[in-house]
Design a protein that fits this description.
heterodimer; A: mainly beta; 11 strands; B: seven-stranded mixed β-sheet; four-stranded antiparallel β-sheet; 0% helix
């Protein structure tokens, strides 16, 4: 199932700089998109979401951008902190009660 | 902050045995889900459950799998006759669909190892 793709398996940034994580999708029926963070031995933790009627949603240091024409979303973390080091998953669904389709994840390392 | 809790954290079972994974969703949530993640692979949807019945299931969720909400707080996943390929992390999730932007919240998972 390749409907949601995260093409970068890993990303390394310096503390204080911006982290940009990218995600592409193919199913035009998706109308709800989410980002989760996952530490080892824990479940995915919800970070931020966006519905398809918006192109941007912001929550503190986290901003999600949605480009529907390109079927692309991105997560910006500014400023990045060492505690942000984790695996980040994007996920998409049809409706906010539908099954989530996950990307493969991107491992973010924030260096002090 | 309310959490989804899963037990046990690790389950080791002989192939062919039945296993029950348990979850306590967030108390006011109405939708319940099971996902799994085989080592090195994506998180995959198994089943969603609402109003005491399955609302959607994936191809993975065959006759060997079943879900139940036996009381007002627990949500269980049963695998009747486990296979080696059932070895994975199993995550329970729940959500409260009161409108837009109501995310699914996940537990920390049960690691199922089939020998």
């Amino acid at each position: 199932d390749q409907q949601v793709k995260q093409n970068s398996p890993s990303l390394s940034v310096q503390e204080g700089r911006i982290s940009i994580l990218n995600c592409d999708y193919t199913n035009s029926m998706f109308d709800y998109f989410l980002w989760y963070k996952k530490y080892p031995a824990e479940g995915p933790t919800f970070l931020i979401s966006i519905s398809s009627i918006k192109d941007k949603n912001e929550d503190g240091r986290f901003t999600v951008f949605l480009n529907k024409s390109a079927k692309h979303l991105s997560l910006h973390i500014v400023p990045s902190q060492p505690g942000d080091s984790a695996v980040y998953f994007c996920a998409a669904s049809v409706g906010n009660t539908g099954k989530l389709i996950f990307g493969q994840g991107t491992t973010l390392q924030v260096k002090p | 902050e309310p959490e989804v809790t899963q037990t046990p954290s690790h389950q080791v079972t002989q192939m062919g045995q039945e296993v029950i994974l348990r979850c306590v969703p967030i108390s006011n949530h109405l939708y319940f889900y099971w996902y799994r993640q085989i080592l090195g692979q994506k998180v995959e949807f198994l089943v969603s459950f609402y109003n005491n019945e399955i609302s959607e299931k994936s191809e993975i969720f065959d006759d060997q799998f079943s879900v139940e909400r036996p009381d007002g707080s627990n949500f269980t996943l049963k695998i009747r006759s486990t296979k080696l390929e059932d070895s994975a992390m199993y995550f329970c999730a729940s959500s409260y669909p009161s409108g837009l932007n109501q995310p699914q919240h996940f537990g920390d998972g049960t690691r199922l190892s089939i020998l």
